[in-house]
Specification:
This protein has 221 residues and is α/β, with parallel strands linked by helices. 29% of the residues lie in helices and 23% in strands. Strands 1, 2, 3, 4, 5, 6, 7, 8, 9, 10, 11 and 12 form a 12-stranded mixed sheet that branches.
């Protein structure tokens, strides 16, 4: 851990460190960032080469594209089309927080996040340092900071153990409060479907959506 760049993010990033993190993203480098769930590894969502580097670092193929983290709910209309009313209700109820919504991506967005089938996963995290970075830089493609098949990192030490120097900078906000990733609801194919159980329960999601959410068989915990 002695050679890695660690930026202190408790309670927030300094102006200098925020500039460093933003510069690394602009240069196509990878960051490990804290979220309100677990640590994530990510990059500029609009940089396809950097997204490919994220997937390679994690040992994941293009068939599992990373979600995009945003700084505000208005990003739904910036990044997506045909957003259902129930998806907006879920965002109002649980953003910022541990909910990822899969929606139809704008056809003219032009981002290459992997084999998305024309969709995009969007989440507004509830983490002050990360939100400041997102407001300053813009959307990031972020997936949990772990090698595929391993548990998500809940500390910078765990993330460094997995990724070492292939990450330009690690934003250290201390141990995460949870070891559980975000809940994922697919809103891109008509009725909502829960495709990953996470920090927000199916019952809470159903109540906020105002309609039944199908719990897809085999949804990952």
């Amino acid at each position: 851990m002695s050679t890695e760049t660690i930026l202190r993010a408790i309670p927030s990033l300094s102006a200098d460190d925020l500039a460093v993190a933003s510069r690394e993203l602009r240069n196509g480098r990878l960051l490990v960032v804290p979220t309100d769930t677990v640590y994530g590894i990510g990059c500029d969502a609009a940089n396809p080469s950097a997204v490919a580097d994220v997937l390679a670092a994690k040992g994941r193929g293009r068939q599992m594209p990373p979600p995009v983290l945003v700084s505000c709910a208005n990003a739904l209309d910036d990044l997506c089309v045909d957003v259902p009313d129930y998806a907006r209700a879920l965002a109002r109820a649980f953003w910022p927080g541990g909910l990822t919504l899969i929606l139809r991506a704008r056809p003219d967005l032009g981002w290459d996040l992997g084999e998305t089938g024309g969709t995009i996963g969007v989440r507004m995290p509830d983490q002050p340092a990360l939100l400041a970075l997102l407001r300053t830089f813009g959307p990031m493609a972020v997936t949990s900071a772990n090698l595929t098949g391993e548990p998500p990192a809940t500390s910078i030490t765990e993330a460094v153990s997995s990724f070492g120097s292939c990450v330009a900078a690690y934003l250290d906000a201390g141990p995460t409060e949870s070891a559980t990733a975000s809940s994922i609801v697919d809103c891109s194919h008509g009725d909502p479907r829960m495709i990953r159980r996470g920090t927000i329960s199916l019952e809470e999601l159903t109540s906020a959506a105002g309609l039944s959410i199908v719990d897809v068989q085999g949804a990952r915990p």
